[in-house]
Amino acid sequence: MDLEIDIEGWPDDEWETLAERATRAAAIVATELANTRLSTSLLFTTDTEVHTLNREWRERDKPTNVLSFPMLSRDELLNLAPNGPPVILGDLALAYETCKHEAEGKNIPLAHHAAHLIVHGLLHLAGHDHEISTEHAEHMEGLEIQALASMGIADPYGDRDE
Question: What's the family (predicted)?
């Protein structure tokens, strides 16, 4: 997958490298994301920008940690031939202040939380949805845990009660 990355309002760090690693990890657990025709834009931005996007596109008047805007249905993605012109999978946006606050609350590095949110967003772009049912949520979380483990990142859900 080709990533177009834009960074606005995040501190200097290796965000592009992290995004590329998270994308490869997501493609390991959701092989439909490994199609080389796919292109995704990823915006590392501020809470203010994500708040605006969330209000305009989702009618939710608040910032959130990650937004995903799919351009393909799950069926279209699953049936995408390996050869042909580039196809836009969708767009992701991560909100710095919210991500930082959540990482601090979980006592984990911001880079680990950002990687989790990138994987989470990519799975949404691939048509996975944790809001459909508990079964769907558990499946999506399992994919996230596997992808992050391949990056050497601990289970982000490990602190919940079983």
Answer: Belongs to the endoribonuclease YbeY family.
Query: Quick one: pLDDT at residue 150?
Result: 98
Q: Is residue 86 part of a domain?
A: yes
Cα–Cα distance measured from residue 153 to residue 146, given in angstroms and rounded to the nearest whole number: 9
* Packed helices 47-58 and 96-106: angle between N→C axes, nearest 10 degrees: 110
Q: Is 139 a known ligand-binding residue?
A: no
**101 assigned ligand-binding residue:** no
Whether 77 is covered by a domain: the verdict is yes
Its domain, for residue 121, covers 2-150
In angstroms, the Cα distances linking 132 to 44, 97, 112, 124, 136 are 27, 28, 26, 12, 6
User: CATH no. for residue 107?
Assistant: 3.40.390.30
Cβ atoms 92, 98 nearer than 8 A: no
Is the per-residue pLDDT at 104 higher than 70?
Answer: yes
- For residue 32, the 8-state DSSP code is G
- Residue 159: inside a domain: no
Residue 149 contacts residue 156 (beta carbons within 8 Å): no
- Output the pTM of the full model: 0.94
